[in-house]
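Exam revision sheet. Question 4 asks you to relate a sequence to its structure. Input first:
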Amino acid sequence: MGSSQLQIIHVADDIVIMHYKKIRLQQALNALNTFSKANQLQVNQENTKILIFGRFKNKKRINWQLGSQIVHTARKYNNLGVWFTENNTVGAQKNAIRHKAAAITYKLAKLNNQLRSASAAPILRVTKATLLLALQYGYLAFPGSLECTIEQTHCRAYLKSLPKPKYTLCTRLRLEMGLKSQRIDCQAAILKYYISLRKANPLTLKDHLRMIFETPGKPWYTQLSKAQKTFEMGDSIQLSDTVIYNVWKTMINKRAKELSRESDLLLIKSPTTVPALNDSYLVGAPQPYLLAAINAGTLHQILCMRTLVLPIQDFNPSWSAHRQKSACRVCSYQQESWLHLLCCCTRLAAERRQLIIPLVLAQGARSCMEVSNLCFSHSVPWALTRCAKYVTALRRLLAQATGTDNRALLIMCKHSLVANETVRRQFY
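Answer key, C-alpha cells:
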C-alpha cells in the first residue's frame, strides 16, 4: 500500500477497525477507498462502521474523507470490542490495542497459510504493516480468544445475536452435518462445516455467509427495529421474531437447493424462536422438537409461495392455550392451531405428488396420543401411524440422507400421502 502502510484483513465489508501510528490517516482512508473499488467492496457510511483509534491533538472532532463521503470520528478508544473512556491510562490502552492487533494479525496470517491447501482461493488478504484494518461481518468485534478462526468468529457473532436461551446455530449445524453426539466441539464443528462449504463451492466466505444469513435484498442486521438496533461493540443484537424466521427460511432454501441433487429427503430444524402471532405463522412453545423430512424441491416451492406457509413449529401438548382464530390460508377454514394448517399443506403437497412427511420427537406415548387425538378431532386427511415398519423404513431413509439415526422418531403420516414410489417400496 505504499507509504501509507495499510494492512488489510479482507473478510467482509461491514465493519472497519483501524489503528495507526505515525501515519497520515487520510492517506490510509484513500488507500482503503482504492482497495474497496478494486475488489468491488461496498465500503461506505451506510453499511460500514469505521472505528478510528488514536489521540487527536485538537479538541474538535476531525472529519475525514472516504472517497466522496465524510467519516466522523469518535473520541473513544476501542480494544477490539471493549469501549475505553479517556483517562490517565490512555497510553497503556493504546499499547494494549497495538499488541493485540499485532497478535491477531500474526494468527490470521498463519491461519491463511494453513487453509490455502484446503480452498481454491485464500480466505484472507494480509500485508505486513502497523495499521490494522479488519473488515468483519456484522457489528460485533472479535472474540476474546486470539486462537479463533474467521469462520468461528462469524458463527459466534451470529450466535451472540440470538436471544438467550434459544436454540443456537450450532444445533442446526449438528443436524446438517449429521453429528450424533449432543456434546461436540463447537469450534471444530463450525470450522469443518465452512471448510466443507469452501471445498464444494469456490465462492468466498463472505458470499457463503450472505447466502446463509441474509434475506434477499437486505442484510438481516439492517431489518432490526430502531428499539432493538444497537451498534455498541460487544453488545448482543436482539433479533425480532420475523427476522429470525426469515433468516431461517433463507438458510433452509439454500440448503434445499444444495441437497436437491444429493438425496430426496432433508432434515430441517424449527426456527430458533417462536414466530409472532399473525396470519403466516402460528404460536407454539419450545417443548419437544418438531422436525420435518421433506423433499428438497417441495420445501423450496412451499416456502417460496406467499399463499402457502409451512409452519414448522415446536410441538406443544398444551396447544389449546395458543388457539388461532384467523382463517386458514389454504382452505379458508377457521383454524384453531398450527396443526390444521400443517395438515392442509401436507394434503396439498400430496395432491401435487410431492413427498412431505411431518415428524415429531415426542416425549413419551402421552404426547403421541395427544397428537393423534388432535389429528382425528380436526378430521384431517392423515393420521398418526406408530407401526414399526414405518419407523424403521423412515429412519433408514433419514440415515442415508442426513447421516443420523434417531430412534425417538414418531411418524405422523399415512401411506396414501407417500407419492414417491421409491419411498413407498421402502415402507412395504
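Marking note for examiners. The CA atoms of residues 63 and 72 lie 5 Å apart.
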